[in-house]
Amino acid sequence: MGENNLTVDTDFYLLGFQLSHQLNIFLFCLLLVVYCLTICGNFLIIILVSTSKSLHTPMYFFLTQLSISDILLPTDIIPNTLHILLNNGASITFICCLNQFYFFAASEVFECFLLTAMSYDRYVAICNPLHYNSIMTGTHCLRMAAMCWVLGFSITLMYCVTISVLTFCGPNIIDHFFCDLVPLVELACSNTITIELEAYVTCILVLVIPIIIVIISYINIIVTILRFQSKVSRQKAFSTCSAHLIVVSIFYITLLSVYLSPKGGKSLKVDKLLSLLYTVFTPLMNPIIYSLRNSDIKKSLKEFINKFVICQDGKNNLLINYGK
User: Cβ–Cβ contacts within 10 Å for residue 192, how many?
Assistant: First the structure.
C-alpha cells in the first residue's frame, strides 16, 4: 500500500530539448503552427468525406479514422511540449504522465492496425475487384475500424496497469518531451520483467504481424497491377495505392527506428527528433499526402469551396436586399 501511494504521488520532470532560449522560442512557434495546420487539415478531411457523396467509400471511411487518430495524437503531445519549451523543462504528475502515455500509445497502436486494414482494403479493391462491394460492406468496415480502436485502447491499458504498480524512487528526471514507455521503465526501481515481456509480445502483435500483412498485401497488389494490359489502368491503380504506401512507409520507418533499432549508435537527441517526427509531423503529413495525390479529394475540396462561396454570396445579397 505504501509503495502504491509513493507511485501515485510521484512527480516527474520532463527535460524537453534543453536548447537555447532563442531555439526554444523558434521550436515553440514551429510546433504551434504545425499543430494548428494538423488540426485544420485533418478536420477538413473529415468534413469533406462526411459531406461529399463521392467519398462515401471504404477507403475514405478509413481515412477519416486516420484523421481522428492524427488529431488525438498531437493534441495529447503538443500542448504539454509547448509548456516545456516555454519553461525549458516542466514537472508532470504521475497520473498526468500515465494519461499522456495512454492516449499516445493507444493512438499509435490503433494506427498500426488501421494502416493494416487500409492495406487489406486496397488489396481487395485491386486483386479482387468483382467482389469488392460484397466484401468491403459498410458494416464490415465499421467492425474493422471499431476493432482497431478497441485493440488500441485495450492493449495500451495493459501497459498502464503494469506501470501503475511500479515503484519510482528517484531522481525522476525524464530526458524526453513526453512520457514514453522506455524512459518510464528505466526510472523504475522495482522489478520490470513483466512489462518487458509485455513489450516483446506487443511488438510482435502490433508491429511485426501488421508489417508482414502490409508487405504481403502490396506484393500481391504490385504483381496484379503489372499484369494489367492497359497502361492507363496501371497508372490509376498505382495512384490509388501510392498515397497509402507513402504514409505506411513513413509511419513504420520512424516507429521502428525509435523502438527497434540498436541504442548504442544513437544519441538521445536523435531519439527525440525521430519521436518528434512521428508524433508531431506525421499527423500533418498524412492529410497533405492524401490530398496532393488524390483527385477525388481535390475535386471534393473544390466543390466544398464553391458551395461555401455561393453560400456567402447568397447571404451578402440577402443583406443588401434587406438593406434596400
Answer: 17
